[in-house]
Amino acid sequence: MFLNSKGYVKMFTDMMSEGFIVIDSEGKIQIYNHKAKEIFGIVYNQQISHDHGRINKGDIVIIGDNSLGRDDGNLDGKSLECLGIKDNNIEKGDAILAIGVFQQKGVSPIYKYIKSDNIVDTLKLKTDYLGINLGAIIDFVNKIITIEVGEEKFSMGYINAIGHMVILDGKTKRMKFYQAQGYTARGESIYDILKGCEYRAKGENANVLNVIGKDIFEIHKGSSTIKEFYQVAKGENISYRDEFKEINGIPTMCTLIPVDKDGVRIGAALKVEDISEIKQIIRERDKALLDLEKIEGELKEEKIFKKAFPNIIGESKEIGHVKRLALKAAKTNSTVLILGESGTGKTILGKGIHENSRFKDKPFIHVNCGAIPTTLLESELFGYEKGAFTGANKEGKIGFFEMANEGTIFLDEIGDIPLNLQVKLLQVLQEKSFYRVGGIEKVRINVRIISATNKNLEEEILKGRFREDLYYRINVFPIWIPPLRERIEDIYPLVDMILPRLCKEVGVETKRISAEALNLLTRHSWPGNVRELENILERAINLSEGNTILSKHIALDIKEETYNIKDIIPLKDAVSICEKNTIKRALKFYKGNKKKAMKALGISKTTFYEKLKRYEID
């Protein structure tokens, strides 16, 4: 009987490592465990204290908002008029820094803003305002907003959007309120505070917000996930397991379960896992890259690259960059993701990374995930116990992960792994352990994982075919191998390396290739990349009767173009047309993302926007 008491329910739910929330059929919160309070900022590390209160006339307000109206209580330009900011050009989605006095005429505000499509690394505002050194910075790269009051700094990180604010007492000029994580749950968004809502005290002795008995929409406003949660509690038949949802601006993985008693819906339960730690993984990746930059100055690059990656052929700056990254990857234990089209040499690069790593004397297990039937993939990767299924080996079988223990496993075409196995693979990455099929004993391993795919995994995530959390786990150290058409100058060293090897394999004397034949190879677009080049050269070896491969022996689908006088236009016009089309292709490829297009084109922000205007590109 004692286990039914509320005290024991609270004790057991607070022991959970995931957030756990239960509401009744009226949407009232019945359980809200400690982890959930941590995730949504209801409890947090309050390093600086202040009393509860409200904003008053004459108080000094400092605001930093990276996306107006998005996660600030639906703040808009008109809401800022209470600070003396009257600017019709400020729109939702803009980033803004503002300093002003609340509801007091005669004191001019100071503010800066940029439009939502503008691309900058930081937005800064520093000034002496009413005798106080004040400042605010939005760091768009590291996703941090910092407000400075004299020597004190109030920083908040964000995932997508955040509205940060500090209030100084108008009379004493001392801090009376600062924004902290979980402000949405506490009803302390910028909009709420400027409308006169009371804010809670902070500090060691401040009371934690008691959410039990409150309406769920008081704590979580405007989230589609919370609306679903409420609908299920009211009787809707919705349920799901481990789905990505954003609640109060925080990326989470949620499981939603109806709660019934005697066939009657009495509420719903929501399990929540915070995945914002992915940001920390990305920071660790970036730090690893920065630390390894020191190595670069000590290396005699060309000599070391040739020794380290003798099978990665090419002299272009693109392939040089690939080798540089691969050597850095080999010196770390980080998970590597190799991206590139079919035939670019992802497997060769993966093996090269292994052979230059501390695992080089250990196993290298290559698994083509796309070539193994889905029904067999789990047992092949993780093995199975004896009698696990009909037709299983009587002695059981170890999987590829156990074969690779203490070494490297290369998961080729990882984008083809089905969703149900992606969960198990994520467990291996996080916990370095798994269960064999039909097994009850946990198998622990120490394996370096290198993955490869020719798919766009970000598109696969949007289509629901690849887990976002798994993507961030495998994408700690990405390396992209450019297609052969983007490094045509590598045709020459590739032919020099491939031709003698193929002649030996075919069983003929080494043949030369004529300049005309070589020129023909450089005019092809190479959709099959290096693999296609090998096939073309092998065919040419078999077709040529002498010791020289001529252009007639090169079987490529290259159509000769015919021209007339109308095709001849001034060179300046031709360059303009080419520029316009190239910019449009870049914008289309990056789905309108101007920052990525600009970076890919290698031009400055000023030049980019001048050309958009000149060519009337929307």
TrEMBL record:
Q: Which InterPro entries match?
A: AAA+_ATPase, AAA_lid_NorR, Homeodomain-like_sf, HTH_Fis, HTH_TyrR, P-loop_NTPase, PAS, Sigma_54_int
MF annotations from Gene Ontology: ATP binding; sequence-specific DNA binding
Q: Which residues form the signal peptide?
A: none
Q: Which Gene3D superfamilies match?
A: 1.10.8.60, Homeodomain-like (1.10.10.60), P-loop containing nucleotide triphosphate hydrolases (3.40.50.300)
Entry's Gene Ontology BP terms: regulation of DNA-templated transcription
Q: Which Pfam families match?
A: AAA_lid_14, HTH_50, PAS_9, Sigma54_activat
Sigma-54 factor interaction domain span: 312-542
Q: Which PROSITE patterns match?
A: SIGMA54_INTERACT_1, SIGMA54_INTERACT_2, SIGMA54_INTERACT_3, SIGMA54_INTERACT_4
User: SUPFAM superfamilies this protein is in?
Assistant: Homeodomain-like (SSF46689), P-loop containing nucleoside triphosphate hydrolases (SSF52540)
Alphabetized, the UniProt keywords read: Aromatic hydrocarbons catabolism, ATP-binding, DNA-binding, Nucleotide-binding, Transcription, Transcription regulation
Could you tell me what this protein is called?
HTH-type transcriptional regulatory protein TyrR
Source organism of the structure: [Clostridium] ultunense Esp
